[in-house]
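User: Please predict the structure of the protein below. I'd like the answer in structure-token form so I can feed it into my own downstream comparison script.

Assistant: Understood. Taking the following sequence of 310 residues as input:
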Amino acid sequence: MRRAPLPEYLNTGSFSLRASDKAGVTRTRTLAKDLVAVSRGIRVPIHSEASGTAALRGYTDVDDHSFLALYSAARIWGHPLPARRSGDWRIHIARRRGSSFPRRANVAGHALTLLPDEVTEFDGVRLTTPARTWLDLAAVLTVEELVAAGDFLVCEHGPEFPFPREAVCTLGELRAIAGRHPGMRGIRTARAALELIRVGADSAPESSMRLALVNAGLPEPVLNHVVWGDHGMPVLWPDAAYLDYRISIQYDGMPHADGKQHRRDIARQETTAVYGWLEVRVSKDDLDGERPAVVRKVRRALESRGWRAS
């Protein structure tokens, strides 16, 4: 017997029986072998390759009170997570404190105290807002890890950059949400991180690089700086810069074996020299260890330009 086709919305990811009931799909149809019961009352088409919100929407549609939180919400918003936390692929579902606790297969349940505007809807799922997600992460991340997450959220680049970028939320929003919850777990970590978050870091390694320099007693570099050329056009976009010493720090996240990228790197170095700047290239390996090599590299560059530790 030929199975009745599912509505397209149900075919594109996980769905709750509540949603299929609303769509007029019979319960007998939801028991067919082309659907997998991944959790109580939630189905996924067996050949589905859905990810992100499409894969998770069934978990927030089972009732009117459940929403994604912590790591699951962080992945949706794009918060960078440290390697030690990235292996937790359970689905983190929360309800407001006082409601029944979420208990189901593949789910880590949470009870949270939050204000009404700290939960939103995005692409068909309910989840904590970017700022609230950041605050919840304060209970499980270190200060440096939370700074990287905050840097990601507030990062923005204007139209003078090759890849303009809008902030997910503002530093003011992070400060405000921390102020709303003075007694919650992790608030000390959040307050410490707020003092170190800056606008302009494109990645967690760039955040780690900046913190390593500051922790070693070197001057804090400027982010989001643009070097303008002779004809009023931008020519360089350092990942971090020391303006007084005309030092450009560029983080290379991956080995640049690609020929085009290698040529771009050479051209950038030549342009840097033409405009009187000194480029310091930093790799992932330069950030490793208790005494990261980036500190030695940057200190040497600063001293070559006349800087002396006070």
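That's the full token string. Residues 1-49 form one domain.
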